[in-house]
Amino acid sequence: MSIPVTVIGGFLGSGKTTLVNRILAASPARTAVLVNDFGEINVDFDLVKAGDDLTFELSGGCICCSMAEGVGPAIKSALKTNPETILIEASGVGEPRRIAEFALLDPALRLDMIVTLANATALDRQIRDPLIGDTVARQFDGADLIVLNHADAARPDALTKAHDILRRLAPGRRVIETVEADLPLDLLTATSHAIFAAGPLEDDTDHGSIYGRDRFESDTPIPVETLEAMLQALPQSVLRLKGWVLLSEEPEVMLLQYVAGRWSLVPAPDAPRLTRLVSIASDPDFTIAESLKTQAFSAS
Ligand SMILES: Nc1nc2c(ncn2[C@@H]2O[C@H](COP(=O)(O)OP(=O)(O)OP(=O)(O)O)[C@@H](O)[C@H]2O)c(=O)[nH]1
């Protein structure tokens, strides 16, 4: 019997991991999860709440661009664990339909659905951005369901605009507004697939050359004021920053999530006493170390 595969895509920070964890929490099925993070440190591997033996990592690249190398072997490894279903979290700069094609080609698999999330607070800006606009737009190609997430943080006019954009990019497709990707999970089964009506795929893009990726690891504690000053001063080119921060004060280790100008810090008592951060920016010269150093100097 073929194993159903759900592909979850959406731009950086749109809420893919949040949705994966929601599905895992609600579903009794034995679910293997393939996570493709953008950085050398696969933060999502630790944040996805499937057992470690059911989580498969596709780190350091973009699975939409290196299909043959990345996805195939990961799916093979996942199948060895006898899952009842497979969830694939695409990279935030990936095209979910490229991944879904694996499920269409492999007789062991059956495509259940492509779900693409959008960040209602940022979609308009992202689509108009000359560097990332095309990538964001292509993520809706072939999506069976579009989840307009971060609805709590979006102004009413931003929500209206986001719906207009989605109507234009994905006419006729179902769009559901959510907060923290909270949606009725029975929506996650498609009877027909938009991917069959999508146009031809464009040539692979080398996302590595469009985006600047950085990682930062250190065991030197960071004063919370330095961290907050750094976050406040981050340029708009920083699309995503996430990972763990070792602070000088209690609680010592915090999980940092920075998405399009907003951030959260949550105590992470079980994480190692280290700072481990990854970032992705449209400015290839952005570095986390430099950004922290600038704030540390201005504080002293
Ligand atoms: N305010 C608000 N925050 C949200 C919502 N959904 C997710 N978040 C937060 O946004 C951050 C990013 O969410 P993730 O689920 O990690 O997003 P992602 O798409 O997996 O991110 P990448 O894998 O880095 O592309 C986290 O701090 C989430 O808790 C939402 O609807 N509203």
Question: What does the model show?
Answer:
This is GTPase, G3E family. The chain is 31% helix and 26% strand. The termini are far apart. The strands form two sheets. Strands 3-2-4-1-5-6-7 form a seven-stranded parallel sheet, sandwiched between helices. A five-stranded antiparallel sheet has the order 8-12-9-10-11. The chain has 300 residues and is α/β, with parallel strands linked by helices. It has two domains: 205 residues, P-loop containing nucleotide triphosphate hydrolases (Rossmann fold, 3-Layer(aba) Sandwich), CATH 3.40.50.300; 89 residues, 2-Layer Sandwich (Hypothetical Protein Yjia, Chain: A,domain 2). Strand 2, helix 2 and strand 3 form a beta-alpha-beta unit. It has ten helices and twelve strands. The structure holds guanosine-5'-triphosphate. The site of guanosine-5'-triphosphate has 22 residues, from helix 1, strand 9 and strand 10.
